[in-house]
Amino acid sequence: MLQQKRCEMKLVDLVRNECVEADLVLADKQECLHKIAQIAKQSSLLDGITEEDIYNGLTRREELGSTGFGQGIAIPHCRLPGVNNFVVGLINVPAGVDFDSMDGEKANLLVFIVAPESEAKEHVSLLSAISRILRITEARSEMAVATSSQLLLESFLRYDRDDTRKVGSHHLFHITVGKDSLFQDILQVITTMDPATLSVVEAKQASEYLSKMPLFAGFWNDREMDTGRIIIAQIDKRLTNETIRSLEDVVGKLDESTDVSVCIQDIFFSAGQLSA
Fold first, then answer.
1. Which domain covers residue 16, as residue numbers?
2. For the residues of the chain, what is the DSSP string, one character each?
3. pLDDT in tens, 211-269
4. Residue 12 located in a structural domain
5. How far apart are CA 139 and CA 196, in angstroms?
6. DSSP code at position 117
7. C-alpha 51: how far from its chain's center?
């Protein structure tokens, strides 16, 4: 039975002091994953798990796609049978290590997770909380050059906004994405805000339907019709401005965009929950 329920999960409790190491020098990604497995194994919460189990789990996850997200950060993680508690750790590599990151840059700040196999929803929420911290430029800069484990941990937790996110009021975001190449990046941004609900609706541009109506025939037949998607998410009001800024990091100024539109509404009433 999982001992750390979602309602009780706070980063300050999940980051293990013994799993934080600073100022490391690592040659490559493989050595980095071995080191992370070694550090994670120092937690007594993983007594029944071998270092090899952890390394293999991290490696299998990397084979699905690199967890090096760019801007010098990576969040290697895995879910393992026999693990009953989340174990989160931090390392920094000031000189950087090639982690197959999306932007081709070396990673110098890595936050890792070893998670219970059956707790996928909690795992995603934890990834979201970590990602929010690592989106803060000052947090990344400070942690990347921390010279001791204590400084690294203190910097990380200082930027944790988990407590402010427990407010029950939310905004409802409707994000219409008309350009396929932007969809994944936008969805990732929204997921890192740990939305209370999140769904995606497949859609078509209205022009596809209008072009088939006699009154409007001929107006749009000379161009390819784009499909679209609508992302619908409930996001804590305290994160609204941060969400908008993060979206503009992906698409540019929203008021100048012709590929994405965002509508934000107050929620009068909300109840129920959908499983991911």
1. 8-163
2. --SS-GGG--HHHHEEEEEEE-S----SHHHHHHHHHHHHTTSGGGTTS-HHHHHHHHHHHHHHS--EEETTEE--EEEETT--S-EEEEEEEEEEE----TTSPPEEEEEEEEEETT-HHHHHHHHHHHHHHHT-HHHHHHHHT--SHHHHHHHHHHT--GGGGG---EEEEEEEE--HHHHHHHHHHHHTT--SEEEEEEEE-HHHHHTTSGGGTTSSTTSPPPEEEEEEEEEEGGGHHHHHHHHHHHHS-GGG-SSEEEEEEE-S--------
3. 677 666 665 555 554 568 999 999 999 899 999 999 999 999 999 998 999 999 988 77
4. yes
5. 25
6. T
7. 25
Residues 172, 249 within the same domain: yes
- How many CB atoms within 10 Å of residue 34? 18
Write down the residue that tokens 């390394």 correspond to: 55
Checking DSSP bridges between strand 77-80 and strand 107-116, what pairing results, if any? parallel
Per-residue pLDDT reduced to its tens digit, 69-110? 889 999 999 999 999 999 999 999 999 999 999 889 999 999
Q: Do 176 and 103 belong to one domain?
A: no
- The number of beta carbons lying within 10 Å of the beta carbon of residue 48 is 10
Question: Of 63, 142, 131, whose CA–CA distance to 100 is shortest?
Answer: 63
Q: Which of 34, 77, 123, 170 does the annotation list as catalytic?
A: 77
CB 167 within 8 A of CB 232: no
Catalytic residue list contains 77? yes
For residue 2, tell me if it sits in a domain.
no
